[in-house]
Amino acid sequence: MGSLANDTALEINGSAFSLNPLDPEEFRRQGHLVIDFLADYYKNVHKHPVRSQVEPGYLKKILPESAPNQPESLETILDDITNHIVPGITHWMSPNYFAYFPASGSTAGFLGEMLSTGFNAVCFNWMASPAATELETIVTDWLGMLLALPKNFLFSGGGGGVLQGTTCEAILCTLTAARDKVLNKIGKDQIGRLVVYGSDQTHCALQKAAQIAGIHPANFRAVRTFKSDAFGLNPEELRKVVSADVVAGLIPLYLCPTVGTTSSTAVDQLPGLCSVAAEHEMWVHVDAAYAGSACTCPEFRHFIDGVEGAMSFSFNAHKWFFTNLDCCCLWVQEPQALVNALSTNPEYLRNKATESQKVVDYKDWQIALSRRFRAMKLWMVMRSYGVVNLRNFLRSHVKMAKLFEGLVLADERFEIVVPRNFAMVCFRFDPNKKDQTGPELHWVNELNRVLLEDVNSSGRLYMTHSVIGGGYVIRFAVGATLTEERHVRCAWKLLQEHAEALLGEHKRLQ
């Protein structure tokens, strides 16, 4: 790798600019090189340590201090990617990746992303690229029907869908719409009375969105959940908290139930929660970021029963629907609420199509002005695999999670901590099986923390943890596109080996 030279004469006389940045034939040649590189990466990704083993600051020690003054060949750059970048990647596409939630990519998702990037359209309104807007309205209706969403969430029923980047954006946009809808009635100066509700299992994106939207930090409620409810939010617990706020003169604004929480994939009790919210005219946004994909299968659809009582619903197609990052699908019953809160109409964006009110301008449904042609990759995924295969891909991951769950249950030294709903298993190593309180709970928590770090440090698989009800649990999330049953069995064998070694070391030190 070269570094910036002091030869400014070449810059001035222009000889440094002899290349065409978008020459079609050179694009073709280099494109083939990159595709071959990635195909080999996918073929051999299982050979890499799943969690990157580098130390902080490793790359700064390797790369030059400044950019090269002269062009370098793609071949040289790809060599550096192989030698310096790949070791610093945590390999989300590895079949041995079981951490967080999956980022399930696919050939169709990748090719759709290529097309979107290749067209490089900036799709802020209909006029900027009509096909991008119209395809988005079509694919969100397709997917909404696949989820059996109520008709008033679809364009065909007066609602509509939009593709955001992430759930964080979906929550912020709908919370902003809810905020403005209420403040327009009671006065902007009343924002200090507005209250936002989730559970103690709700993703931190809700609290972040509340901060950005100007909700007073003291008016954010994380309602307690209980093991008896499998850590799903109970309507009666919500009612108690809301009632106390009303008595205190506060205004319940926004509720975010979750279908498939990050910690344990718990499912909040939608029908009852929506009923409580309706009593106070709260906006309900259902966050199904992970589990929404599974709800396209009829046997899982019941988890979102009650969604008809919500104002908005979202899930991440980039998590478990084989659509490469980023692609969060958001549906709203009242699109005008988004438009009222998020639209700007400067002179330089005025055009006949917008003024006809016959088109959707998605700039008014999101935070930013500019937006990408995300619909292309989602459209390609749905067309390339079809509904039958997409559902069966999801079912195969659930089947592998059930297999892992059975292996855990068959070993008396381990236990399942919470019921499995989808394709993630929460478990822990507890060889003593004593009452887990006080010192014993601390010992079990520390034992599992060390076990997880030992396994992850091996590089052979990667899992993450959470703390639920005070207990440290290990999360095993099946969903990587390349994962097969043999990878699950190998993961379990590795876990047992490390657990036995850890227990042996503990006994030796006693």
Automatic annotation (TrEMBL):
InterPro entries in the record: Aromatic_deC, PyrdxlP-dep_de-COase, PyrdxlP-dep_Trfase, PyrdxlP-dep_Trfase_major, PyrdxlP-dep_Trfase_small
GO molecular function list: pyridoxal phosphate binding; tyrosine decarboxylase activity
GO biological process: alkaloid metabolic process; amino acid metabolic process; carboxylic acid metabolic process; phenol-containing compound biosynthetic process; primary amino compound biosynthetic process
UniProt KW keywords: Alkaloid metabolism, Decarboxylase, Lyase, Pyridoxal phosphate, Repeat
Catalytic function, reaction form: L-tyrosine + H(+) = tyramine + CO2
EC number: 4.1.1.25
Segments traversing the membrane: none
Residues modified as N6-(pyridoxal phosphate)lysine: 319
Cofactor(s) listed in the protein's UniProt record: pyridoxal 5'-phosphate
Enzyme class: lyase
GO cellular component: cytoplasm
Keyword RNA-binding in record: no
SUPFAM superfamilies: PLP-dependent transferases (SSF53383)
Involved pathway(s): Alkaloid biosynthesis
Recorded coiled-coil stretches: none
Family, as annotated: Belongs to the group II decarboxylase family.
Task of the protein: Catalyzes the decarboxylation of L-tyrosine to tyramine, which is converted to norbelladine, a precursor to all Amaryllidaceae alkaloids such as galanthamine, lycorine and haemanthamine, and including haemanthamine- and crinamine-type alkaloids, promising anticancer agents.
Name of the featured protein: Tyrosine decarboxylase 2
Taxonomic placement: Eukaryota, Viridiplantae, Streptophyta, Embryophyta, Tracheophyta
